[in-house]
Amino acid sequence: MLTVKDLYASVEEKEILKGINLKVNPGEVHAIMGPNGSGKSTLASIIAGREGYSVTNGSVTFEGKDLLSMSPEDRAREGIFLAFQYPVEIPGISNATFLKTAVNEIRKYKGLEELDAMEFLALIREKMKIVGIDQTLFSRPVNHGFSGGEKKRNEIFQLAVLDPKLAILDETDSGLDIDALKIVANGVNVFKQQSKEKAVIVVTHYQRLLDYIVPDYVHVLYNGRIVKSGTKELALELEERGYDWIKEENNIPASTK
Amino acid sequence: MAEIIEKTDLRDYYHSHFQAFENSLNGLKETEIHLERKKAMEQFMQSGFPTADNEEWRYTNPAPILKHTFMPAFEAGEVELKKESFEKYLIKDLPVNLFVFVNGKLREDLSVRQKGEEALELESLSAVMKKDSEVIRKYLSEPVNGFTALNKAFLNDGAVLRIPEGLVLENPVHFLFLSGSPLGEILIQPRIFIIAGKNSQAKIIESHHSIFENAYLFNSVTEIVTEESAVLSYYKIENESEAAFHLSRLQVRQQRSSAFNCFTVTFGGSLVRNDLNSVFSGEYAETNLNGLYLADGKRHIDNHTVIDHAVPHCNSNELYKGILDDKGRGVFNGKVIVRKDAQKTQAYQSNKNLLLSRTAKIDTKPQLEIFADDVKCSHGATVGQLNEEALFYLQSRGVGIEKAQSILINAFASDVIDLINIEKLKETVNQQIMDKLHKVSE
């Protein structure tokens, strides 16, 4: 489904990713872990198409299509969803208008008929239950004045409504209390269980979220490279031992590749 | 001809037209109103037009206007018009008392009143002057510069609207201004008087449209009086061609416990300047001045407001938002004066601007002058660009870049548009913004 090959990328001349290789098949859950500044969020951002990164080498393909030459909106329309670490507040536009526009832009791209107000409402009602979002939150401006937990829940609500093929969660667990974490994880699991084809990439610093979203593979990103891959047991080991042993094992000066 | 005029002073040019105007008045040359006109013409001859070194005109240089020599509209004669030709300018599905002004002159033949609202008194300025000029002389304000002096000197076109005491007007009044001449570049100078009687309530829409390609100068003065406890909502929608110059001065005098809500939407003109002056003369009055401007192409839009808290216990709120694209230029100059005796004043003022291109420009100058010591006042201005992170957020949800931009622009403007309390007008304004933005992105 998603293939990242020998990816090098930099921000303002500073090299962040130094040869990432990653293959995600339909139905798989991958966790990408690593200490702060290792390049986790950069990888998520490049897959989603955020500006400000220059890819200096390598490729990213999604279902065989070159992702890097696509606009962010086309990536979303093809089926990639990024849950933001810091969801953006947009005063002046309601969640409802925002989501209806998004749903219909994606449907138009797929050659499907746009949903009318009634059909859209029916879809929303069904999905609201999954993440416990209520009507008032839905009619408020996008993320405006939301608590941290509400913002993250809203991301998962959008995931449920937009129904992509691949969901990327960028530190969705940061700043969440355990109850909110469970709701978010449940939302992701419901999305995953809809079909055997849905894939998830969980980018996280901590193991905690992985108690609820169980990964098939765990990758440790350090200094711009995946230095270790394993199964969910690797995540537990990281939780126990921290990241220092990884750093020691891979103590390469930043100037050499 | 043009060459000769360039070499002579513009003042002499307009003075010679003033003499032609005087001669056309025949027997009405000896009236008190005409003495006022002559006085104004003298003032004009002394002051001439303002220049950019005048602080009030620092950000809006009148020079582009003064390159033209405009022929007073009455010399160009009447324009033949059918109702079908301006139907597109009416607000869809909104019943109104429609008064059409073609080149500043009231056209009764094109105007329509709603049934049951005959109590509304509207007459052309010239008709009122002929029978009883007292009301005009009472409210006729003194010129503040060469433009307003010139308007006063040629005082003849326009209308007087009286909303009788206690009348609650069900349907809005719509002053539809259609401007331009096929014969050349003309000078349009109406003066409108609006007297909102004691305890009355009304909504007025003033909209402006160009009906010919030729340049013109629209140079108007509107005098509004809200008597005790009157509530008046005033909407001004400017949607004129890129050849149009539009200068208007709105002078508001508010009596005790009255409320004046003004909303100015400006899309252009080539050069537009709105001067809005509001004076509180009675306590417990309220004024709300709001506005939205969108300058694209090479359009220049200036909103100058002055709110004068001359007495205690009055409130004023002001929110102006601007969207500037291409080489569009905006000016906001908002002054709030709180005089020494005006205790318990509350005055809030805000101007926010969105720049969509590197070549767009805004000059914003909010000013508070407070001489009282027991007041609540605040003011502020912001200038920003579209939020890149919000754009990416929308794109990452599948929304195309152009649509994402227009959503964010609408989101920016939405809180001020929500202050329009005529639903059909709000829809029209929203649509006009969408159309404009669509053109911008093309």
Greatest interface and its participating residue counts: A-B, 30 and 24 residues
Detail the poorly predicted runs of chain B. 1-7
The value of Rg of chain A in angstroms is 18 Å
- Spatial order of strands in the largest sheet of chain A: 6-9-10-3-11-12
Query: Quick one: overall form of chain B?
Result: globular
Number of β-strand runs of chain A:
12
SS elements, strand count of chain B:
21
Number of domains of chain B: 2
Query: Which class do the helix and strand fractions of chain B yield?
Result: alpha/beta
Oligomer description: heterodimer
Number of helices of chain B: 11
Q: Work out the helicity level of chain B.
A: 10-25%
Whole-number mean pLDDT of chain B: 93
- Largest pleated sheet of chain B: 11 strands, mixed
Quick synopsis:
The complex is a heterodimer of chains A (257) and B (442). Chain A is α/β, with parallel strands linked by helices and 257 residues long.
Task: List the keywords.
heterodimer, A: 257 residues, alpha/beta, 6-stranded mixed beta sheet, 4-stranded antiparallel beta sheet, 12 strands, globular, B: 442 residues, 11-stranded mixed beta sheet, 11 helices
